[in-house]
């Protein structure tokens, strides 16, 4: 089963930027290579529910974003490296959370709009703290 591993978190000042990366742990044989899946990023702050932030299609040609991060965060994927990234700009204190990625159970593009299925299994996550 695909088990993603996140990296790139840290402490950043308000207005700063970070880029998170997601890769598959262990061997990347068929079935556990994240290149075969639409991929999701989410975050969870202490005492709050998990918020799905963004999804990218398996092809990489379609994306979607939650309103809370639209225009500030950008999801992308590198098929050669089998990684998915989340570029976060203009970070705010309310962005402080543990950020996780996951493969999605399918995807659908209708009318130019991407909808991704539920997460198969979230990774352990990487902590992002936005503070001065």
Overview of this protein structure:
The chain has no helices and twelve strands. The model has no long low-confidence stretch (mean pLDDT 93). It is mostly beta strands. The chain starts with a strand and ends with a strand.
The major beta sheet can be summarized as: 6 strands, mixed
As a percent range, the share of strand residues is: over 45%
Number of helices: 0
- Residue-averaged pLDDT, rounded? 93
The outline comes out as: globular
Strands side by side in the biggest sheet: 2-12-9-4-5-6
Strand runs, count: 12
Attribute tags:
132 residues; mainly beta; six-stranded mixed β-sheet; four-stranded antiparallel β-sheet; globular
How is the topology of this model organized?
Blueprint: E1 4-7, E2 10-12, E3 18-24, E4 39-44, E5 51-56, E6 63-65, E7 73-78, E8 83-88, E9 97-103, E10 107-110, E11 113-116, E12 126-130
Parallel strand pairs: 2-12
Antiparallel strand pairs: 1-3, 3-8, 4-5, 4-9, 5-6, 7-8, 9-12, 10-11
